[in-house]
Amino acid sequence: MSNFDQFHLDFYQSNYTIDDQEEGYNSYGSNENLCGSRKNQTGAQPPASGLAPSEMLLSSQSYTGQILQPTYSPDTHLSYADGFDEEPPLLEELGINFEHIWQKTLTVLNPMKPADGSIMNETDLTGPMVFCLALGATLLLAGKVHFGYVYGMSAIGCLAMHALLNLMSVSGVSHGCVASVLGYCLLPMVILSSSAVVFSLQGILGTLLALFIIGWCSLSASKIFTSALAMEGQQLLIAYPCALLYGLFALLTVF
């Protein structure tokens, strides 16, 4: 081999080794870049298991209250307080108004006093129940156990008067209103039964007193019905069936 050929061969081998080294450097740099990019990606996107606690913390931080213990809000507390202050008393919610009971009682005791239709049109049964019990109790003191008769005649009388008043009036009337008026007007009959405890009513004096009490009860009831139902000029027509009803209670008291 000549010197010229040997020179070309050495030159070729040197160029080949330089190219291999450059390719190695390039491949190593590309691997480093690839590894770096993967590291960056893994750093930018944390695993899903690491995200779950943070999301739970965010969701838990959005709700500041506790179970069965909501977050305190002064506006809500004030609204509740205002609502409690504006609520009516318990007795009024139950339909027990002592002022109205007293006004109805005075209206019955004074037949000449004009009745307030707005008050008398209420379905108040507290006073009637008390007067029915008082009538039965005074009859019991006189030796007459007539609680069943008192309740039975009261129920039948209320149904009959309800049907009659609905036929006579334009606006109509409820069962509660009829029972309330008839029950309140039973108060003079309690006075008659109380007097029967002291002396006997089976005589002329007792008969006159019973007739007076019957007229008193029927006049008060008819006055209240005419004012509550706007039935002017029909008081005598209403007083007649009321007198028949209270006459039955008078018979229980006298005999």
TrEMBL record:
<dbReference type="GO" id="GO:0005802">
    <property type="term" value="C:trans-Golgi network"/>
</dbReference>
<feature type="region of interest" description="Disordered">
    <location>
        <begin position="23"/>
        <end position="51"/>
    </location>
</feature>
<comment type="similarity">
    <text>Belongs to the YIP1 family.</text>
</comment>
<dbReference type="GO" id="GO:0048280">
    <property type="term" value="P:vesicle fusion with Golgi apparatus"/>
</dbReference>
<feature type="transmembrane region" description="Helical">
    <location>
        <begin position="237"/>
        <end position="254"/>
    </location>
</feature>
<feature type="transmembrane region" description="Helical">
    <location>
        <begin position="148"/>
        <end position="165"/>
    </location>
</feature>
<protein>
    <submittedName>
        <fullName>YIPF7 protein</fullName>
    </submittedName>
</protein>
<keyword id="KW-1133">Transmembrane helix</keyword>
<feature type="compositionally biased region" description="Polar residues">
    <location>
        <begin position="27"/>
        <end position="44"/>
    </location>
</feature>
<dbReference type="InterPro" id="IPR045231">
    <property type="entry name" value="Yip1/4-like"/>
</dbReference>
<keyword id="KW-0812">Transmembrane</keyword>
<feature type="transmembrane region" description="Helical">
    <location>
        <begin position="177"/>
        <end position="198"/>
    </location>
</feature>
<dbReference type="GO" id="GO:0016020">
    <property type="term" value="C:membrane"/>
</dbReference>
<dbReference type="GO" id="GO:0006888">
    <property type="term" value="P:endoplasmic reticulum to Golgi vesicle-mediated transport"/>
</dbReference>
<keyword id="KW-0472">Membrane</keyword>
<feature type="transmembrane region" description="Helical">
    <location>
        <begin position="204"/>
        <end position="225"/>
    </location>
</feature>
